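Cont'd.
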Amino acid sequence: MFASFRSIGAYVPSDIRTNQWFIDRMETTDEWIVKRTGINERRIASDIQTTSDLGVEASKIAIERSGIDKNEIDLVLCATISPDYMCMPSTACIIADKLEINDVMAFDISAACTGFIYALSIAKAFIESGMKKNVLIVGAEKLSSIVDYTDRTTCMLFGDGAGAAIISATTNKDEAIIDVRCSADGSQKDLLLTPGVGSGEKQFMQMKGNETFKVAVRTLTSDVVKILENNQMTNDDIDLFIPHQANYRIIKAVGDALDFKDEQKVLTVDKYGNTSSASIPMAINDCYESGRLKSGDTILLDAFGGGLTWGSALVKFASK
Ligand code: UT7
């Protein structure tokens, strides 16, 4: 049995936060933000919208596009670092409940910006082992709830949003997910962390931006080299290179080092900022909705985040 990437969906809140919002509140400029990050705007969830609400909207679209009945879903995974509840219940449980998908296995994945690729890997393994047939994977974030808006070095980076996909069993090898790689290194945990729970400063994300930047470029690049080599593939076999959307300069540095052409590189960070685990599925969805991504295309996903975690995936897009 093989696992196929059957459909994609995404949802972003309607509230657009431009760079002017930050300029009005702290010592910064549009020029600095655009030059250092490539970000022009991000979406911000309302006070009453939760991470699961965003995930549910994205999931409804992915389910509809998959053509399966929601009751055929037998596993729900949610990658998030901004869950509805701190430890329990998981956001995956809440999403399954809101979608009225009952009696399924559901759990969260904590792998920061690499979360969607971790979820893809788990879905693939469950399907290939024959244990599950249709897996809903969600990357959903309300990062505005864990961003310290007094820290001008990080707060302008992040936004809210969600993406979701249906991964299904297939006997057709031509439409199978080719490979997924996932890694972690806890010794570098201090680069990106959320120190504590509850109220006060400890609930906010902290990042050593400049150090993280350098490790991100190195790791994202070497991981792509490995996954292509392992599968005897080259850049020419890739239709779209869809990296985690952390910073335009990171994407450019990685894309250039790997020699990808502009038409292969996908960039959405300008309009959504960094949405952690949601950024890759949101970017896939953007390509799908704009007609840039078609059934049968081969996409290369590449992510890096807190943990540290990183991963890449070679995926045949099997959406009808
Ligand atoms: O998604 C998970 C992984 N995350 C990432 O990969 C993010 C990685 N990091 C980054 O994207 C970048 O490091 C940042 C965008 C966060 C920062 O860019 P940078 O080029 O690394 O800047 P920096 O931290 O080295 O700061 C450069 C200067 C400093 O001033 P001095 O010391 O050179 O005088 C900062 O104080 O920019 C100053 N600065 C600002 N100036 C205007 C820092 N924040 C701001 C600001 N506006 N908002």
